[in-house]
Amino acid sequence: MKKRLVFCFVIFCMVLSGCAGNQREDQKTGPLEQEDARQEVQDGASAAPSQAEGTEPPANPEPTPEDDAFAGRWQAVESPQYYMDIARGDGDIYTLEIVWAGASQGDIVWQAAGSYDKTWGGVAYTGTKYEDVVKEDGTIDRTPVPEREEVTGMVYLEDDGTLHWIDDFDHTGDDMSFEKE
């Protein structure tokens, strides 16, 4: 029940974040115009320094990719054939590659990208599920799984540092926990 509630909330957040994107752009233009007008008044009225010159850097800087809690290789505790690689890009953007090594014909791979969701304390992602099929000549042919060309889910950390995976479609990550290598 909790996982379904989390899933519904994740979808709800994704919808809201899509809607909020346009508002953020509108909000960004408003204060810039006000700041320009304020600067014109200051330039004409006095030679006092602007507020932008007196700002200090934030007290808590953004974590670098090297010290990020999510970034790195994670190994499934219950099923050693599962592992995931998470890399942090710019800002709160992450790329994920989740692999089920040694499936019947080859590996199953989920490749996704997402951003950190402060409300849920995890990375909500969208991506594609692939099958890696080993051909007779030894080459690997990676093809999207047709019924799962767009997958969504979330990875989140427990207080003990264990990573959990919520796969919204196949529920492959149900009852799986990952430890950082």
List keywords for this structure.
alpha+beta; 35% strand; 181 residues
Task: Produce a short descriptive summary.
By secondary structure, the protein is of the alpha+beta class. It contains one helix and nine strands.
Characterize the structure shown.
This protein is of the alpha+beta class and 181 residues long. The protein has one helix spanning 2-45; strands at residues 72-76, 82-88, 93-100, 108-117, 122-134, 140-144, 151-157, 163-167, 177-180. It has an 8-stranded antiparallel beta barrel with strand order 1-2-3-4-5-7-8-9. Strand 1 (72-76) and strand 2 (82-88) form a beta hairpin.
Number of helices: 1
Rg (C-alpha, Å): 22 Å
Measured by DSSP, the beta-strand proportion falls in: 35-45%
Q: Kindly report the average pLDDT value.
A: 74
Q: Which structural class should the secondary elements be placed in?
A: alpha+beta
Work out the oligomeric state of the chains in this entry. single chain
Order of helices and strands: HEEEEEEEEE
Note the gap between the termini. Answer: 31 Å
How would a textbook summarize the main sheet?
8 strands, antiparallel, barrel
Low-confidence stretches: 19-54, 57-66
Share of residues in helices: 10-25%
Number of strands: 9
Instruction: State the shape.
Output: globular
Read across the widest sheet, the strand sequence of neighbours is: 1-2-3-4-5-7-8-9
